[in-house]
Here is the input.
Amino acid sequence: MKKALTSIALLIASNSFMTTAWYWHLKHKGWTLAMAIMVSWLIALPEYLLQVPANRIGHINFGGPLTAPQLKVIQEGITLTVFAVFSHRVLGENLRWNDVLAFALIFAGVSVSLFTSHKA
Here is the structure.
């Protein structure tokens, strides 16, 4: 359980950097496309430094409890959560009802993936 929680914590941190890299430039209308790309790449570097250890720590081949597909769907759920907070707090955009429904359906998929044994 400790490895799963460590992996999830690293994925949350990783996704915070990546969401910022992908969307923060939208607040800066004065930036050129080249500037937006450069700043985004600099912000994305720490994402990789967190993402790779998160997947290794959590994966069954390295003593973790999770399969690669489980890690991926957990990451997608985390990505949506981090994005929803970022969208509201940084961009000032709220989720619409259909966005919430779409997110809920994806979270249902995360649940299905986590509640199935990887030894099946």
User: Anything to note?
Assistant: The mean pLDDT is 91.
